[in-house]
Amino acid sequence: MFRPLFNTRASSIAFLWKGLFMTIFRLENPVQHYDWGSQNAMSELFGMANESGQPMAELWMGAHPKAPSILADEQVALNTLVDGKTAHLGKGSLEKFGQTLPFLFKVLAAAKPLSIQSHPDKQQALEGFAHENHLGVPLDAFNRNYRDDNHKPELVYALTPFRAMNGFRPLDEMRPLFEMAGLKQLEEAMKWLGEGNLKAFYEHLMTLKGEEKDRLVAAALEFADTSDHPAWQEVQRLNQFYPGDMGVLSPLLLNVIELAPGEAMFLKAGTLHAYLEGTALEIMACSDNVLRGGLTSKHVDVPELLKTIEFDTIALSDLCLKPEQEQNGETLFISPVDDFLFSVIEPEKALAPLKVKTAEILFCVEGQQVIKAGDKSVELKPGSACFISAATESYQIQGAGRLARATAIL
Ligand SMILES: [Zn+2]
Question: 26-70+100-165+258-318: CATH homologous superfamily?
Answer without folding.
Answer: Jelly Rolls (2.60.120.10)
